[in-house]
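The instructor's notes for this session suggest beginning with a concrete chain rather than abstract definitions. Hand out the sequence below and ask the class to guess, before any prediction is shown, which regions might be ordered.
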Amino acid sequence: MGGLIAQELNHAGVPFSAEEHDRRLTELLGERDRYGGRPSVLAEVCEQVRAALGAPQLNPDSAVDLVATLRRAGLEVSSTRKWELARLDHPVVEPLLRYKKLSRLHTANGWAWMDSWVRDGRFRPDWVPGAVVTGRWASRGGGALQLPKEIRSAVRADPGWRLVVADAAQLEPRVLAAMSGDEQMARAASAGDLYQALVDQGVVETRQHAKVAMLGAMYGATTGEAGALMPRLTRAYPRAIGLVEAAARTGERGERVSTWLGRTSPPPSAWWRDAQSAAQQPGAGAAAERRARQVARDWGRFTRNFVVQGTAAEWALCWMGHLRRRLAGTGPADGRPELVYFLHDEVIVHAPEELADEAATAVAEAARAAGELLFGSFPVEFPLDVAVVESYDAAG
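After discussion, reveal the predicted structure:
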C-alpha cells in the first residue's frame, strides 16, 4: 500500500507556484545572480561577516575556514553550530547567524532547487515509503520532508481549488497510550491537548514540562529537566512508561524489539558488539566497562523510540490508505480530490473548492478509522488540526 501511495504522490505532484517561490527568494535573498553566485542580500551579509572579522577573503560557507578565522579573532569555537555561535559576544554573531540561515535557504531550496524539482506547476520529489529503519518515509531528492516555512507560500492550490492541510496532534504519545493500554494516559489524550491534560491531571506544573517529560520518555532523556520529571510520569502512567522502559532494557541486552504490526528493529551494530566483548575480556578495566554500559544505553534509547515511532508510521500509513479509498469516491473522476503531500503525521489534499469541506471530513474519518484498525475499541483518540486554505503557509 505504501508503495502504491508513493507512486500516486509522485504522479500527482505538489501544486507549486514558481512565481511565488521566485518572489519569496528575491524578498529574502535579493536578486538572483545570473552567474550562479550569491544573490544580492546574501552577498551583502557575507561582506558584513568578513568586515566584522577583518577577513576580506573569508568564505563563510567553509566550516573549516570559518572556524579558523573565528579563532584568529580570539573566539574559542570548535564548530559553526548555531548554539555555539549564539553564546559568543562579538559583532560577527548577528550577521553570521543571519548568513547561515539565508545560505541554507539558498542552497537547499533556492533557484537551483526549483529548476531541478519544479515542473509544470508541480513540485515533484521522489517519495520513498519506509526508507527509514522505523518505517518512516523519506524522499529521494527534493527535500520533500523539509520544506521550510519561508517558501511554503509557494505551495499553492490551482485556481478554483483548495489545499486541505491536516496534521495529527501529538501523534506519538497517543500511539504510546494505545500500544500500552494505559487508560489513564488515554483519558488525557481524549481531552484534546494531551500536554495540557497532564497539567490538569496534576502530573506536572506546566504544559512545557509536560512536553519535555513526554519527549524524554520516548527518546530516553535521563538527565536534566526531562530526567527529573520521569518519576512523575512513571507514577501517573505506569503501563505507558513501562512499555518504553522494557523496550530500552531489551535493546541494552542486544535483543530486538518490534512495532505494533511487527516491524523488527535491526540487531545492534558492530560498535555495540565490540564494546560488550571488550568489557568481558579478562582484565578489562573500568574504562572498558563504562564504555560497554554507555553504548548499551545508547542502543536502548534507539529501541525505546523504535517501537513508538515505528508504530506511529504504521498508523500514518493506515491513515493514508483509508483516505485514499475515501477520496476515490468523492467527486467526478476528472475533478476528484487527491492526496499530494505527506510528512510523518501531516497530509495535504488538493481538492476542488466545492469539495474541500467534504475532503476535510474524509481526512478526519480516515484518521479515526486508522486508530480503530490498529487498536480496536481501545479508547484513544487521534484528533487532527485541519485547515482549508489557498496556500500551505496559511495553514499555520
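Then share the key points. Residues 278 and 288 are 6 Å apart (CA to CA). Residues 18-120 form a domain with the Taq DNA Polymerase; Chain T, domain 4 fold (CATH 1.20.1060).
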